[in-house]
Design brief:
The complex is a heterodimer of chains A (620) and B (193). With 620 residues, chain A is an alpha/beta fold. Chain A is built from 22 helices and 22 strands. Chain B is built from 7 helices and 6 strands. Classes of the chains: A alpha/beta (620), B alpha/beta (193). β8 of chain A pairs antiparallel with β2 of chain B, so a sheet runs across the interface.
Chain lengths: 620, 193
């Protein structure tokens, strides 16, 4: 392996994990965290280490496994996106009380904006909620170093530690210099201690007191954690304004102040913001008349400072309360605060004028769409055709994009397609209304958190159609295998868990699998499923719409490519463009006709059955 | 070394990541510290894709608008959207699809700031060579013809060779060369005029 390589932030985190001789790594994929596990596997294979790495079926499962490894004395890491930590919250809260033996590091990746997440939640609050330390890196290199710090802290204080890199760390690329890596050699050794590891409520109070003690101690440690918590005050000097920043905003601020040569503005960087380094912050605050806090994704440090007269930030409206703090926003806000305090502002930003020019061009907005040939498109089209009056509950994955086809009515969280369908059923059934309901969920999401909802729906007598959109991969997050494939994270074979058997195991009595590319058959199965649901003796009908993802399986997903063209029979009704929404079908402005973009067309041929006038044909 | 800021943009599937890798490869071999930011996840499904690349002693992976010495666009509209990143006297290289590029309003803006604007029909070139997905290589080759340090022809060509998968290497170099030739021809005709 070369000594220096450009790594993704998630690669740098993976490197930190392997360098720390971590022996057990678990994760559920989710943007922006998904690349950590594949990179861990790359380093582990290169080193020939016997590190155990798994894609867990969900984040709670993953954290439980990592926790057991920790109390067996081994170092363990569990990786997820920020909303995944909600799923694992039950574990997190409890394991904070129980404590750790081997270092336990939870990596929860935040996503301001949110580019591909349900919320802009700030993992630092989850850390405080659970009373565990949290580290907030500014760069991939710092994230790598912080993984090591997190393992040491976890072992020193016997507490799980959270690393919360934001998307601009996870998906940054940086040149990183390698250091030697070594295999973890600890042997599993579980010391039975039911008062701790099986603590009943009586002992939990003691454990809570212990945890509170740890929080106080770690706060003091963070006062002196000078590699990640530091300021550049000159002794004895007073300043009209100081800035407190952590995470990605610190990196942005640091570059802006250097570029503008503003050494007159002191900065307190807090890479380890909780437990709050009270004494370090207090030094900084007493030297500055006002303090501006710049942090993502929410006001966290701003609340912990507890001096509402001195502090400016999100709560005072000086920093935007939502969205990503892009460099241009930080530049403008810092400049505004300087002006407000009668200080010299930053240099004028000249890009405002460019923005005005660009806005005047009225450029089309490119929204994400399902790929050409995506089997989900065929499934959604069939559902809309067969059951036009249905409420369609959906879930988290590529198929969220079915919203462009008018085929998605609700998205709540992982697994909610099924639970919400049950909720709709009971709400309407209570009024005696037979509302058609179709629940749509992907294969990986079904395994993540669909089964408990399905079991509940069957048990409580809900009636709806559940379409499991089985594309034989976890597509949105980068083609990780699902339990049904029997392929494990490192490519080795595991035991394949049949989707059909899981469905039947939940008590479902109607189940049919169909290839959605065959729209006619799909339509027929959906009608049959609807009849079963409506039958007084019926229940939940499961339709497995199975066709491999074209991106994951390429030519194997498309045995015969069809060349598509549009004939003179086209009446320009726009039905295909609006309802089928394939990127390869477009309106050619020059010709004034609906046309096929042959570069984009996958040749799946599903559109052949879509046109009301039969104008979409297979070219000879 | 001074900081060099680049922004690469286009649409999902156009190979922005490959271009970013090629440029990073050149930079790292010339001793630069490299930091960049990418688009992943939802936004990749046919949406706009932007990649930032910063060379030098920096910590933020994102480029401040108005400070990129070079913006490379694989799609004309995405090129316009990212125009605010171009620094005064910076360079704006765009894969063009319309004859009216860049239009009067934009041209006025470019002239006032001394921005160097260059358009190449990279998609047409790639399609004509039977490689419709390789417009990124045509644009890279074209850029190398105006090779300002650190992105000179020889180094970029070598990087493309190094990072191309085996089955694509030969074709990639062909399209890269076609873009390069287009750039060289333009430079010659300017000199003659």
């Amino acid at each position: 392996m070369e000594t220096r390589e450009i790594l993704l932030g998630n690669g740098a985190i993976a490197l930190g994990i392997v360098e720390s001789a971590c022996q057990v790594v678990t994760a559920y994929p989710g943007t922006p965290s998904s690349e950590i596990v594949p990179e861990v596997i790359r380093f582990v294979k290169a080193g020939g280490f016997n590190t155990y790495v798994e894609w867990s079926t969900n984040e709670k499962v993953g954290l439980d496994i990592a926790f057991a490894a920790s109390i067996s004395g081994k170092r363990a890491a569990c990786c997820m996106k920020q909303v995944g930590l909600n799923v694992a919250a039950d574990s997190l809260m409890s394991c904070a009380y129980l404590g750790t033996v081997g270092g336990l590091v939870i990596i929860s990746c935040d996503e301001p904006m949110p580019h591909s997440s349900a919320t802009e939640q700030d993992t630092r609050f989850m850390a405080k909620f659970a009373k565990v330390p949290v580290l907030d890196p500014s760069t991939p290199q710092e994230a790598r170093e912080m993984v090591g710090v997190a393992f040491s802290l976890s072992e020193e204080f016997k507490v799980p530690v959270i690393l919360r890199p934001a998307v601009r760390v996870c998906h940054a690329r940086q040149s990183i210099t390698y250091r030697p890596m070594a295999e973890g050699k600890r042997k599993a050794d579980f010391g039975r201690n039911p008062d701790r590891w099986a603590a009943t409520p009586r002992f939990r109070l003691t454990l809570h007191a212990e945890l509170n003690e740890k929080v106080m101690e770690i706060g003091k440690t963070f006062d002196g954690l000078s590699a990640h918590n530091f300021h550049d005050l000159e002794p004895g000097k007073k300043y009209p304004l100081g800035i407190v920043a952590g995470g990605v905003p610190y990196a942005v601020l640091r570059d802006i102040l250097r570029e503008e040569d503003r050494t007159d503005i002191p900065v307190l960087k807090l890479g380890a913001p909780y437990p709050f380094p009270e004494s370090l912050a207090s030094d900084f605050l007493s030297a500055c008349e006002k303090v501006l806090v710049i942090e993502e994704t929410d006001a966290f440090i701003e609340l912990l400072i507890r001096d509402c007269y001195k502090v400016l930030g999100r709560l005072t409206g000086h920093i935007p309360r939502e969205g990503e703090l892009l460099p241009q926003i930080i530049h403008r806000k810092v400049s505004d605060v300087l002006s407000e305090l009668g200080q010299q502002p930053l240099k004028k930003d000249e890009f405002a004028e460019a923005m005005a020019v660009v806005n005047s061009l009225e450029l089309p907005i490119r929204k994400p769409t399902l790929c050409p040939g995506c089997p989900h498109r065929a499934t959604f089209f069939a559902i809309r055709s067969a059951l036009p009056k249905a409420i369609i509950t959906s879930d988290i994955g590529c198929y969220t994009l079915g919203i462009n086809m008018g085929a998605v009515d609700t998205i709540l969280n992982m697994g909610a397609a099924i639970t919400m369908a049950a909720g709709f059923y009971h709400s309407f059934a209570q009024d005696g209304v037979a509302q058609p309901i179709v629940s749509t969920i992907g294969d990986s999401t079904f395994f993540h958190s669909g089964t408990s909802g399905l079991l509940n729906a069957v048990y409580n007598g809900a009636k709806f159609i559940l379409v499991i959109m089985d594309n034989l991969t976890t597509a949105m997050t980068g083609m990780q295998p699902t339990p049904a494939l029997g392929i494990r994270a490192d490519g080795s074979s595991g035991k394949a868990v049949s989707l059909e058997r899981a469905v039947i195991g939940c008590g479902v009595e109607f189940m049919e699998a169909v290839d959605p590319y065959d729209l006619e058959k799909m339509n027929e199965v959906l009608k049959k499923a609807a009849a079963y649901v409506n039958d007084p003796g019926g229940g939940i009908a499961v339709v497995i719409a199975r066709h491999p993802c074209l991106i994951a399986y390429r030519e194997k997903a498309l045995l015969k490519k069809k060349k598509i063209s549009i004939t003179e029979d086209c009446v320009e009704c726009n039905f295909c463009i609006e309802r089928f929404e394939c990127p390869a079908i477009f309106r050619d402005q020059e010709l004034g006709r609906t046309s096929i973009n042959q570069q984009l067309c996958s040749g799946c041929g599903v559109c052949l059955s879509v046109c009301p006038t039969g104008a979409i044909v297979e070219a000879a | 070394m001074n900081t060099i800021n680049l922004v690469l943009c286009g649409l999902g599937g156009q190979g922005i990541l490959f271009m970013t890798k090629a440029l990073s490869q050149v930079a790292i071999q010339k001793g630069y510290d490299v930091l960049g930011a990418e688009t992943h996840g939802m936004a990749q499904r046919g949406g706009s894709v932007v990649s930032h690349l910063r060379l030098g002693d920096v910590q933020s992976s994102l480029v401040l608008p108005g400070s990129a010495q070079l913006v490379l666009a694989l799609d004309e509209n995405e090129g316009y959207k990212n125009l605010p990143f171009v620094a005064p006297a910076g360079r704006w290289f765009v894969n063009i699809s319309s004859p009216s590029f860049p239009g009067k309003k934009v041209k006025d803006y470019l002239d006032v700031r001394g921005i160097q604007c260059r358009g190449i029909p990279a998609s047409s070139i790639a399609i004509a060579m039977g490689e419709p997905r390789s417009s990124n290589l045509a644009l890279l080759g074209y850029l190398s013809a105006f090779g300002e340090d650190p992105f000179t022809y020889g180094d970029l060509r070598l990087a493309v060779q190094q990072i191309s998968p085996d089955r694509m290497r030969e074709k990639n170099i062909e399209v890269f060369e076609a873009g390069f030739k287009r750039g060289i021809d333009e430079r010659r005709s300017v000199r003659r005029a």
